[in-house]
Amino acid sequence: MAALQEYKCPCCDGAISFDIESQRMKCPYCGTEFDVETLKAYDEELKKTGQNNLSWNSLNGAEWYPGEEDGLRIYLCNTCGGEIVADENTAAASCPFCGNPVVMMGQFRGDLKPDYVIPFKISKEAAIEALKKHYVGKKLLPKAFRDQNHIDEVKGLYVPFWLFDSDLDAHIQYKATRLRYWRDSSYNYTETSYFSAYREGSVGFNKVPVDGSSKIPDALMESIEPYDFSDAVDFQTAYLSGYFADKYDVGYDNCITRANERTQKSAEEAFASTVTGYSSVRAENTSINLLKGNTKYALYPVWFLNTTWNGTQYSFAMNGQTGKFVGDLPLDKGAYRKWLFGIAAAVGVAVFAVQYLLWLL
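Now predict its structure.
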C-alpha cells in the first residue's frame, strides 16, 4: 500500500487537507487556503532543499625545487612553541607572537611549498606611524598611555593562509510576512499576511582565506581583511628576505569547516538580499551543494606591533598590503565613568521632559 502524502501549511506548519466546500486545500488551524497546483509546486521546491553537500577536492600542493629550501632556517620559540621560517640573513631576536627570545633550530625541510605570496607594501616606519594614528580620536584612551607609550617590538610576518575556490549551488525556501496596520475609534488592528519565497542559483567564490596558524586567532586575521589578490605573485624565497614566515600548523583539511562557514554565510546573505518588500524574512529550508572546490596555499603580509604599559602588553596587527589596522587599547576608567554618567544624565533629562509633556496634556 502506498504511503499517503501529507502536506504542511506554509504559514503555520499545521497539517492541511482538502476542503470540499471551497474545493481547495485548507489549513484547519489558521484558515489559509491553497490551490492544489500551487501547493504541489511548493512541495516540489521543498524537495530540492535538504542536506548540504560541501565536499572539497584533495589538495595537490606544489613541491620545492631542488636546493630551493637551502637558504631557509627554522627558529623555535621555547615559550609559545611557534616555529618561524626566515632566510639565513634574517636576524631572529624575539618571537613575533609572544615577544620572547627564539633559537635557531637549523635548516628548513619539508611541508608544502606556498603557491603564492603577497609581498609587503607597507614599510616598518609606516606601521609605526599607523599605530600613532590609531590613538587619535580615542577619547577614553588614558592620556599617559598616548604621551608616554613606546613600541617594544615591530615584526613583519608572512602568515600562512589556505585559499579556497568554490562554486555553490543553493536552493533556499523562505517564510516571509507582511504587516498592515489600521485603527478605528475603538480598536487598533494588525493584519499579518504570510508568504513563501524561493530562491535558487549559483554563487562563485575565489580565494576565500582561512588562517593556517593556530597561534594567531582567526578573528584577528579576518579583522584586517580584505587582501587584494591581484598583487599576489608566484612564491619565491627571495620575498622572505628581512621578514619572518610562520609555518602552517593547521592543515587545509582542518580549515575546511571554517571555509564552509564563510562561503555558506555569504551565499545565504546574497540570496536573502533579493527577498525584499516584506516585514520579516526567515530562511526555512536550505540546501547548499559544493559544485567544485579547490585549495591553494599562500603567504600574506602582516605587521605585528607590541607595546607595554602599566605591566600589560598590548598587541596590534596591520595588513601589510593595505594598511588596515586593529588592536586593543587600555581604558581610562575615570573618563569612562564620566562618559557613562553623561549618557545616563541625558537619558534622564529626556525621560523627564516626556513625562512633563504628558502631564501638561
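The radius of gyration is 29 Å.
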